[in-house]
UniProtKB/TrEMBL annotation:
<keyword id="KW-0677">Repeat</keyword>
<feature type="region of interest" description="Disordered">
    <location>
        <begin position="24"/>
        <end position="47"/>
    </location>
</feature>
<dbReference type="GO" id="GO:0006396">
    <property type="term" value="P:RNA processing"/>
</dbReference>
<keyword id="KW-0418">Kinase</keyword>
<feature type="region of interest" description="Disordered">
    <location>
        <begin position="102"/>
        <end position="128"/>
    </location>
</feature>
<feature type="repeat" description="PPR">
    <location>
        <begin position="201"/>
        <end position="235"/>
    </location>
</feature>
<keyword id="KW-0675">Receptor</keyword>
<keyword id="KW-0808">Transferase</keyword>
<dbReference type="GO" id="GO:0016301">
    <property type="term" value="F:kinase activity"/>
</dbReference>
<dbReference type="InterPro" id="IPR002885">
    <property type="entry name" value="PPR_rpt"/>
</dbReference>
<dbReference type="GO" id="GO:0007005">
    <property type="term" value="P:mitochondrion organization"/>
</dbReference>
<protein>
    <submittedName>
        <fullName>Proline-rich receptor-like protein kinase PERK3</fullName>
    </submittedName>
</protein>
<dbReference type="GO" id="GO:0003729">
    <property type="term" value="F:mRNA binding"/>
</dbReference>
<dbReference type="InterPro" id="IPR051114">
    <property type="entry name" value="Mito_RNA_Proc_CCM1"/>
</dbReference>
<dbReference type="InterPro" id="IPR011990">
    <property type="entry name" value="TPR-like_helical_dom_sf"/>
</dbReference>
<dbReference type="Pfam" id="PF01535">
    <property type="entry name" value="PPR"/>
</dbReference>
<dbReference type="Pfam" id="PF13041">
    <property type="entry name" value="PPR_2"/>
</dbReference>
Amino acid sequence: MAAALLRRTQIRIPLRRPSSFSTAAAAAAAKSDSRSPNRIPSPVPDPDSYYRYKSNIIFEFDPERIASLFVSSAHPPEVYKIFVSRLARFGRHELIERLVEPHLGGGGSSSDHDEDDQNNPKSEDFNPKSEDFHIRIIILYAHAGMVDHAVRAFRRIPDSGLRHSQRTLCALLFVFLRNRKLDLVLETFRSAPEDLQVSPGITAHNIVLDALCRHGDLAGARKMLDEMEGKGTKPDAVSYNVLVNGYLRKGDRSGFEGALKEMMFDKGKELFLTKRDPPLDLY
């Protein structure tokens, strides 16, 4: 049955991806109710110039040159991940830090910041007082494998006059999940109500479910799913899909078919199979 489903089912990555830049969703399109209705959207780059600019980065093999491309010209938010991914591939974390930290107020002269203000679009993506800005930085560090930097960026959020929220919590959980730190996923999830005054929502639960499945603890994931509704968090389609994918990755045909039947027939949820990052709606 599993093999037949894989042949018949179109694999859909449950991530919202405007343009080509997202981790879990686009910076301009998170669904969190906590977001401001007056948020200034990021400008949409001209397709021709955007793809030309993107190609210049992808086909450049000198890390210093990549960094200079970032500094020397204005660029849309979509390009940030491309820069970070390329520099991380070369192991040049110090260049990533050099590019990112000035935006956090962690370095650079005032003239540097003035120049940045002139080059960068006036949107929430570049506003240190915006939750989206901090989430973007955290996720960029996550993709670069720079966990300590991501945690430091997370801890700086209150310094900007913002409170931690379910979205910032999910960003931190994603950092640990992305970098295979299951113990920190669980520890952060459990301590969030006391340490951050944030009660984890459905997305945070789904990240933990995915972490348990990826580390082979399907019994723990199954138990958590069964307990969620009793604790006031109703599992959604993502919750069941994470469990189904977990059984599939492990090759547990019996568990896969049982969870699939429960999801599609008992719960009426849609199936989508993915081997990518969990479906988050962070930014």
